[in-house]
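Tip: read the tokens left to right.
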């Protein structure tokens, strides 16, 4: 993956509070929220919500289809935190034998592996490979076509 796909987070991001009504988005059938809830004055700043460690956070654009069943698609934007210690189940950005990859960290038979979210790709055993973890994925931003 070329370096132009890596974007450092701003170390001191400007506040960008956007309207955030109290209504919860339900992905099923439900009644409509009260129109009065739109005027309750709540706001949401995605930097405040998602970027917990600005100096250790970067953004990265995804290429490829190896993580599709885990909800990560081509051109999605990942928010990656270098300050989090990786644990099994975390999705990592790592340099494996000179190539940047996004995979889920798992223990298979007590051996560490990087696993894709696509059955077309076999797990990568880490015992014999040069692997440098760049960070843990904290969020995925997926834009829908309009």
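Filled-in amino acids:
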């Amino acid at each position: 993956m070329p370096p132009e796909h890596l974007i450092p987070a701003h170390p001191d991001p400007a506040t960008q509070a956007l309207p955030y009504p109290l209504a919860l988005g339900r992905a099923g059938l439900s009644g409509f929220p009260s129109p009065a809830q739109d005027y309750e004055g709540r706001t949401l700043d995605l930097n405040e919500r998602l970027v917990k460690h600005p100096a250790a956070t970067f953004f990265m654009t995804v290429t490829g289809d190896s993580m599709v069943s885990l909800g990560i698609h081509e051109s999605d934007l990942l928010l990656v935190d270098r300050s989090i210690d990786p644990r099994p189940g975390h999705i990592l950005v790592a340099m494996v034998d000179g190539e940047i990859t996004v995979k889920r960290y798992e223990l298979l038979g007590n051996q560490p592996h990087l696993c894709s979210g696509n059955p077309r790709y076999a797990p990568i055993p880490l015992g014999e490979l040069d692997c440098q973890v760049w960070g843990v994925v904290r969020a995925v931003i997926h834009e829908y076509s309009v």
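The chain is about 5% helix and 35% strand. Residues 51-146 form a domain with the Umud Fragment, subunit A fold (CATH 2.10.109.10).
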